[in-house]
Amino acid sequence: MSRRSLLHALAASLLALIPSLSTPTPAPANAEAYIIWPYDGAVIDGGKLWVRMGLKNMGVCPKGIERPNCGHHHLLVDVELPPMDKEIPNDRNHLHYGAGETDARIELPPGKHTLQLLMGDSKHIPFDPPIYSKKITITVR
Asked: How does strand 43-44 pair with strand 136-140?
């Protein structure tokens, strides 16, 4: 292997070790996420409910699929919006719908709860500017 080839291979190896600096995915113009069901102020008997997610002026596609104007839903339960420049957490308060789901069955304990949608790109990072729904409050009894 020539010295030049060796240097190129070494440079490529070193670059692979550095985390890539990616720019945020641009949001489509006038995109809007919203919760279809339940409505704000709804009282739900029992803790199991369907959440129906709506989206205008962009498409829904699974995680890992990089298409312009396309992303997937994340449902935020009883939390504030996460940092907009990092991957959306994946835990019991940040539910990922990376298969492209537009409705989901969730279970919540009795009491008041907040729900909010946040769209993520192919890597679960919010768009720029972020696309999120109005936060709603429901009561489970």
From this structure: parallel
Tokens of 45: 């008997």
Q: Is 38 exposed, middle or buried (0-12, 13-18, 19+ CB in 10 A)?
A: buried
| pLDDT of amino acid 99 | 96
Q: What's the predicted TM-score (pTM) here?
A: 0.84
Answer whether 38's CB lies under 8 Å from 116's CB: no
The string of DSSP letters for 67-132 reads: -TTEEEEEEEESS----TTSPPP-BTTEEE-TT--SEEEEE--SEEEEEEEEEE-TTS-B-BS--B
Q: What is the dihedral of CA 23, 29, 30, 32, to 10 degrees?
A: -40
The class level of CATH for 24-140 reads mainly beta
Q: Which residues of the chain have pLDDT under 50?
A: 7, 15-20
Structure tokens at 14: 């070193």
pLDDT given at position 24 = 85
